[in-house]
Amino acid sequence: MKLSLIDTHCDTAFELYHRKQSINNNNCHISLEGAKDLEKYTQFFAVWASKRKSDEECYSDFLAISDNLYSEIEKNSDKVAFVKSFSEMKAAWSANKRAAFLAVEDARILGGKIERLDVLRDRGVKYLTLMWGGETCIGSSHDAEGGLTDFGREVAKKCFEYGILPDVSHSNEQVTDEVAEMAFEANKPVIASHSNSYELLPHTRNLRKKHLDAIIKLGGIVGISLCPIHLRDMSDGQKCTSEDVFAHIDSYMSLGAENVLGLGCDLDGTDLPDGFSGVCDLYKIADACLSHGYSEETVEKIFYKNYYEFIKRNF
Q1: I need a labelling partner for 33 at 20 to 30 A (CA). Which of 7, 160, 189, 273 fits?
Q2: What distance in Å separates the CA atoms of residue 304 and residue 213, rounded to the nearest whole number?
Q3: Separation of CA 283 from chain center
C-alpha cells in the first residue's frame, strides 16, 4: 500500500544544526530524500534541550537551531514548507511538498521567564514537551519525584491560552496527573508525542492507562516511539524488532486508542530497532500491522489520518 505519514516527534533539527547538513540529503534518520516514497508527509521537528547545557544555553540553542531549520526549509522550498496551521499543511501537500511543524522538547529553555513563551508562539511552536530528565524549573521528569513547580503550572496554563499543546512525554506520573487536570479545566487537549504503552512495558517513560484514558477524553493524541528500551526489556540480549513496535500499537489499540494513536518515532533522538535506519524504513511498521490482520484503513489511521483529524481540529 502507498503510505502517507504524519509523525509527531524527531530530533533531526538538532542534528542538522550540529552536523551542518542539509535537510534534503544527509546521514540523519530523516531527510527529504529518505522520505521520497511517502505520498504525503508532515513532520514535527522538536528542538531538544541538551542535558549537558544550562537552561540559558539551551534557549540560545533553540533560537539558533530553529533559525537553521527555517533556512534549510527555505533552501529547499520547492520540496518542503514550514507550516503553522492545518490550512498551510494542506496547501503544502497540494503543492506536492512536505510540511514541517516546529516544537520544543524540554520547557526548561524558558529558564523561569514566562515571556519566552511569546517567542516560542511567534516562531510557530505547536507543542511544548514539558520535561526531559531530572528536576527542572518546570517540575519533575519521569526519573524524578514531585509535581509541577509554580512556574511549571504557569507555563502549562499559558500554553492552553496560547494554543501551544502541552506534551507529557518524559513527565512523571504526578506531573501528568496535574497537567491532565488543568486540561480538563481548560477544556483543551494534551498530547504524548512519543510515549509507548506502560501496560505492556512498565518503564517510567511509558504512558499509563489512566493517562491514555485522559488523553482520549480530551481529544489528544499519542505517538509510538521507536526507542528500544521503551519497547521491550532488553536484558535478555534479544534484538528489538518491528514486532515489538507492533506490540505497543496493539496494546494501545486494545485500550481504546484507535482514534488517537499515531507515530512519534523519535528519529535522530534514539537508537532504532533492528532493520530500521530512518524514515525510509517506517513501512516495516505498516507491514507488521498488516501481517497481524490490521486493515489498510486502520494502518492509514495510525500513519496519518488520526493526526490529520487532530490537526484539523486544533491548528
Answers
A1: 273
A2: 21
A3: 18
In sequence order, what DSSP letters do the residues of 129-189 get, joined into one string?
E--SSSB-SSBBBTTS---B-HHHHHHHHHHHHHTPEEE-TTB-HHHHHHHHHHHHHHT--
The CA distance from 173 to 178, in Å, is 9
Beta strand residue intervals within the chain, DSSP E: 5-10, 41-48, 80-82, 98-105, 125-129, 165-167, 222-224, 261-263
Q: At what angle do helices 242-254 and 283-291 cross, to 10 degrees?
A: 60
268: phi then psi, degrees, rounded to nearest 5? 65, 10
State the Cα–Cα distance between residues 167 and 165, nearest whole angstrom: 6
Q: How many residues in total does the chain contain?
A: 315
What tens-digit pLDDT sequence spans the chain (315 residues)? 899 999 999 999 999 999 999 999 999 999 999 999 999 999 999 999 998 999 999 999 999 999 999 999 999 999 999 999 999 999 999 999 999 999 999 999 999 999 999 999 999 999 999 999 999 999 999 999 999 999 999 999 999 999 999 999 999 999 999 999 999 999 999 999 999 999 999 999 999 999 999 999 999 999 999 999 999 999 888 999 999 999 999 999 999 999 999 999 999 999 999 999 999 999 999 999 999 999 999 999 999 999 999 999 999
- Which among 154, 159, 152 is positioned nearest to 131, based on CA atoms? 152
What's phi and psi for 190, nearest 5 deg? Answer: -120, 165
Q: Which of 188, 192, 224, 309 is nearest to 259 (CA)?
A: 309
Place of cell 511498521: 285
